[in-house]
Design a protein that fits this description.
Elements (H helix, E strand, L loop, with lengths): L1 H5 L10 E4 L3 H10 L6 E4 L19 E2 L5 E3 L5 H4 L2 H15 L11 E4 L12 E8 L4 E6 L6 E3 L4 E3 L14 E3 L2 E3 L7 E2 L10 E2 L16 H20 L2 H25 L11 H23 L7 H17 L5 H9 L1
Parallel strand pairs: 1-2
Antiparallel strand pairs: 3-4, 5-6, 5-9, 6-7, 7-8, 10-11, 12-13
Helix pairs in contact: 5-6, 5-8, 6-7, 7-8
Amino acid sequence: MERWASSAAFRKKVRFLMICVAGQGLAATYSKEYRLKNVLNGYIERENDMPRFGQLGCQGFVVFDQAGNMTLPATSPFLDIEERAFGDVEFQLNTLLSGKDVGLLEPGRRVQLTRLVKAKQLNGKAGTVLEFDSKDRRYRVQIDGYQKSHGIQHVNIIPLRQSSQVSKKRKATGCGPGGCSMPKPSQCSMDDGKCSSSGGCSKTEASSRTITCPSVGVKAMDDEHEECFSALKQLQGSRKLDALEKAKETIAAHFAHEEKLFKETGFDDGGKFSKTKSHCQDHRKILAEIDAEMNRCSNSGGSTVSEDFISSLAFRLSDHTKQYDTQYSSHMQKHFKQ
């Protein structure tokens, strides 16, 4: 959000607002960590003041026009479509700024359909823009596998990058209850996986960022974090598929135990502002990334795990701990002291 808010395209035209539903402390943490200068950062003190449309953040952004009317309840979730979610935000904002009678997508542009209500079966389908009809304010889209073209509103379209524009996929992503960060993957080497407040990895001269594994103040969780990083250390040494499988088992067991504790300690109320929704989704995403690497190794006929993937996975777990696990720290500490 800070990048958008400080960009020439949006700086004087769009107001970016970040509202934390988990109190002033987390809002202050995000303000410092993400160096927010152009984003209006705030928080909600009382439960009665919570917005009625639920928690967003990595689930998408809500968009209002200049008159304060909600034009889009939620942009596409980052946790579902990754970088395409950022393109969705930019396209929707640019459409509002340019006027709905203006077609911003040129004929031939590849797009993906989303947020359709009456034709849900088309959500996720890809197609090609044929033209923009200014009368009904819709794009004519030739959907792959369909003979007839369809008229699609801009809010139901996600532009896909052209093949020449595709950049390397970001290998590490941090999404917390209030938003997403896109740091570069670290190239640092791991130590013995010991978790501490000062971190679980040593930074090499070539590293761009230290991989750390902060303590969450809950012994059971800290011990399991140590086990996860120890498994990654073994994987780093062997780069064998069976070591990755073992690392996945260790990580999956930790995630399952953590989610069990959420319910047992009452950390997850199950409501629309559930503290664990994005947290658990990130668990699934990390495991899916491991599965993808395992499939790649199997399909390539070899069993060597990519060094980049190991570094990326270590960073993902570290960032997950910082963004999510630290949020339950005080709650569980109080619970286990009782």
